[in-house]
Amino acid sequence: MPQESMYAAVDIGTNKIISIVARLGPEGELKPLGTGVAPSNGVQQGIIDDFSEVKNSLQESMTECMRYLGRNPVDRYHVVVNGDHLVSVNSTEMLGSGEEVVMITEQRLRSLMSSSSGSLEQQLDSRSEQTLHMIPMRYRLDGMAGVRNPTGLDTSELQLEAHIVRGMSVPLGNTVRALQSCKAKVDGMIAHPLASAEGVLTADEREMGVVVVDIGAGTIKTAIYREGSPFFSSVVPMGGNQLTRDLAVAMRVPYQMAEDLKVQFGHALPDAISGTEEVLIPATQVQPKRMVLRRELCEPLYLRSLQVLKLISEELYRAQISAMPLGGIVLTGGASRMPGLAEMASRGLRSDVRVGIPLWYAGLPESLRQPEFSAVLGALQWAVKHRNRTDQERPRGSGERNWSPASLFRRPFARSGSRRAAAEPEFEDE
């Protein structure tokens, strides 16, 4: 099996590390070949804080993933990166002098964009920040707005609007070192909000405009699309683990027992549960087993879910959107599976809400058709979509050890202009 037709991705999450390898078929379809899931130790809110623990967990996940792949395992991975150090900005840059009419070719466009990146690089401290993505949103040719693809058109002046995602060099570098310590190489880095969106969105949703919210164990990732492209992405350091902690305190049980109770009996809307339904709380070292009303058990989950949705509302306000996109909201990530959460979000945010599972077209096993796999499967699809560019720009030779994540992607343009003010989305308490 030629290695060039195989792609691998890894998501180093707060609760678990997921590795997956897939083969690219003749029609561009991806077929999963192996998956590895291991408990994640040494990660807090998406950021590595114990290198040796992460190394062991990562090795366990990757070994399980490659167990049945024979003697030629994949050693290059696309990595989903997370953490509230990831920030996004929209930039506008003018390309061309306005004096000479030229035809825009792909090569000329890349060259012009590369030459225009210096202004932002001068603003950034390259020792502390790295650019992950520069995603063109739209172009303006000689004053004509709304151009999606200028390739092949003549123009004397080309203006580009781009969505830029960057992050801190230290946590990104620690992620690279973690893979290198497992004798693996980084083929690309994908910001978590964009990886999740890649995994769950349809083309129609991107065009209509849509909000993707991935609620993981330690972070909430938001990506907002309009006219086919992302224009806002963010990471907030709170997630499903906080719901579990609240439940552990309220029920006076250990954390893992609270997690099991949340998964089995949790509901974001206690009023939707029968007032007589009871739940058996197992015995612990400090108290005997007991029966409690399920509504009582779900009350702390309701209160924390309300706070989660208010945080989402605040992110929509930061994005300065004047109205909810027509595509509504897509919830994904492990915490999105909790019953009642989608309904609660629909009521509070006054929008259509669905729970997104990975969109896959080549026999995805049922075990992977879950929201918690959206980002890692989205990273695989991202890798295939950008494979030509990645093949040209991947790090090579002995210089890999000093590789900067910015080298994998086009560098961004200078930030200019200010965003329009917009009314804050109204959120109603339940």
- What is the assembly state of the chains in this entry? single chain
> What's the tally of helices?
12
Helix content range: 25-40%
Percent of residues in β-strands: 25-35%
Strand order of the largest sheet: 3-2-1-6-13
Measured on Cα atoms, how large is the radius of gyration? 23 Å
DSSP strand count: 20
Query: Which ranges are low-confidence, i.e. pLDDT below 50, for 5 or more consecutive residues?
Result: 390-430
State mean pLDDT (0 to 100 scale).
Answer: 84
Distance between the termini: 55 Å
How do the strands and helices of this protein lay out in sequence?
Layout: E1 6-12, E2 16-24, E3 30-39, E4 43-44, E5 47-48, H1 51-65, E6 76-81, E7 87-95, E8 102-103, H2 106-115, H3 118-123, E9 129-141, E10 144-147, E11 154-155, E12 158-168, H4 169-181, E13 185-191, H5 192-200, H6 203-208, E14 210-215, E15 220-226, E16 229-236, H7 240-251, H8 255-265, E17 278-281, E18 290-293, H9 294-319, E19 329-332, H10 341-349, E20 353-355, H11 374-385, H12 387-393
Parallel strand pairs: 1-6, 6-13, 14-19, 19-20
Antiparallel strand pairs: 1-2, 2-3, 4-5, 7-12, 8-11, 9-10, 9-12, 14-15, 15-16, 17-18
Helix pairs in contact: 1-4, 5-11, 7-8, 7-9, 9-10
Record keyword descriptors for this entry.
430 residues; alpha+beta; 5-stranded mixed beta sheet; 20 strands; globular; disordered C terminus
How would you describe this protein?
- The protein has 430 residues and is of the alpha+beta class.
- Helix content is 32%, strand content 28%.
- It has helices spanning 51-65, 106-115, 118-123, 169-181, 192-200, 203-208, 240-251, 255-265, 294-319, 341-349, 374-385, 387-393, and strands spanning 6-12, 16-24, 30-39, 43-44, 47-48, 76-81, 87-95, 102-103, 129-141, 144-147, 154-155, 158-168, 185-191, 210-215, 220-226, 229-236, 278-281, 290-293, 329-332, 353-355.
- The strands form 6 sheets. A 5-stranded mixed beta sheet has the order 3-2-1-6-13, with helices on both faces. Strands 16-15-14-19-20 form a 5-stranded mixed beta sheet, with helices on both faces.
- Helix 9 (294-319) packs across helix 10.
- It starts with 5 loop residues before the first strand and ends in a 37-residue tail after the last helix.
- The model is unreliable at 390-430 (pLDDT under 50).
